[in-house]
Specification:
The protein is α/β, with parallel strands linked by helices. It is 35% helix and 14% strand. The structure holds pyridoxal-5'-phosphate (PLP).
């Protein structure tokens, strides 16, 4: 396990070449590339070149990724599946719901779900599910009470997102999970926009299932994710979407039956995404060394500075002002978000947009100067802010 250094801000920037010339505020889309992640890909290629198929070692690396995700989530490795995407993990969980086998049929989703979660929920309509959306209030928040209105004894699964990719709202996952549990339903929290930037603890979070991946605040690249499933639920959740790496004995190569692993590996699927695992381990090691508590505190300082500056500009900050209800992502209403992103890119300030919002994401490698730079750039483009 990595030794925590609390190395954030200026102390870590040298690991990320892009930061030498670019103000990088786009970790909600893709984390910045570090030298460590680049070297990890090279290590994978060098090993392949030197030794040929290193399957024993590659499978061991997949287990190392499982253990790293578990540490970051404060879970047990037996509760973590190594996936290729959130989509794979959430589809596998959905496939484990006994909808057409006389089970409960309602799936509740928040309006802030990433498309993949909403689409997977609606795909279950083909198996008899009824999908109910929980919509935001006028202030943009979706408090637990809105979930309570539609979660009942028909509900199999309640999906919420720890941090909204669209607005930066932080959900009260613990309370939503409590409401789900009171009705006998499961709670799934898509935590992609939180993991790596916030100090997560699956027990504190309260959800039964937590999905995420390495593309964003875990500082690696596409094609690697995780699915946490609470250990006490594993025996009753048997996915029908599966693959040979989910079998109780992968190397028996047995095609005579379906006998999934007893632990969360039952939610793995096919051949592990080996190159992405090398990168994912490298990215996660940066996060673990810095320590998620130190990262969260650093990010909270930066978001506070940013929100105060945006208020001074008279901008419409869509993300809550209360620090308790936001994370690393700050969204600002724009009159033309695509034009604003393009204009900022010309000054080498990298952001992104969703809906009509400019998305500004802060992470461990950002510093006060990044915040001041984007505030100054936005002041010059005030006409593109609502
Ligand atoms: C909240 C959230 N969930 C899921 C995803 C992606 O899902 P997948 O790993 O299936 O591509 C993203 C971003 O790409 C996201 O922001």
């Amino acid at each position: 396990m990595a030794v925590e250094t609390n190395r954030v801000g200026a102390a870590i920037r040298g690991e990320f070449p892009i930061l030498a010339h670019t103000t990088y505020l786009n970790s909600c889309s893709q984390g910045a590339l570090s030298q460590r992640v680049r070297r990890a890909y090279e290590e994978y290629l060098d090993g392949w070149d030197e030794h040929g198929a290193e399957w024993g070692h590659w499978v061991e690396r997949a287990e190392a990724a499982r253990a790293a995700f578990a540490r970051i989530l404060r879970a047990a490795p037996e509760e973590v599946a190594v996936t290729t995407s959130v989509s794979q993990g959430v589809s596998a969980i959905a496939s484990a719901l006994p909808l057409e086998r006389g089970g409960r049929t309602r799936i509740v989703i928040s309006e802030y779900e990433f498309p993949t979660v909403g689409q997977i929920a609606h795909a279950q309509e083909l198996r008899g599910a009824e999908v109910v959306h929980v919509r935001p209030q006028a202030d943009g928040s979706i408090p637990p009470e809105r979930f309570a209105e539609v979660v009942d004894e028909r509900t199999a699964l309640v999906c919420c997102t720890t941090i909204s990719y669209r607005t930066g709202h932080r959900h009260d996952v613990a309370e939503i999970a409590r409401i789900a549990h009171e009705a006998g339903a499961l709670c799934l929290a898509d935590s992609y926009q939180a993991v790596g930037a916030l100090d997560l603890d699956v027990d504190r979070l309260g959800a039964d299932v937590v999905a995420g991946g390495t593309v964003k605040y875990l500082l690696a690249s596409a094609g690697l994710g995780f699915l946490y499933v609470r250990g006490s639920l594993l025996a009753e959740l048997t996915p029908t979407q599966t693959g040979w790496f989910a079998d109780e004995d992968i190397f028996r190569m047995d095609i005579s039956d379906y006998s999934p692993a007893a632990d969360a590996r039952r939610f793995d699927a096919g051949t592990p995404p080996v190159p992405n695992i090398y990168a994912g381990l490298a990215g996660a090691s940066i996060v673990e060394e810095a320590g998620t508590r130190a990262i969260e505190a650093h990010v909270a300082g930066l978001t506070a500075r940013l929100v105060a500056g945006l208020d001074e500009l008279g901008a419409v900050v869509v993300t809550p002002h209360d620090p308790a209800w936001r994370g690393p992502l700050v969204c600002v209403r724009s009159t033309d978000a695509a034009a604003l992103v393009a204009a900022l890119a010309q000054e080498r300030i990298v952001c992104s947009e969703r809906d009509s919002n400019l998305r500004i994401a802060l992470h461990l490698y950002n510093v006060d100067e990044d915040v001041d730079r984007i505030l100054a750039a936005l002041a010059r483009r005030r006409h593109l802010l609502a």
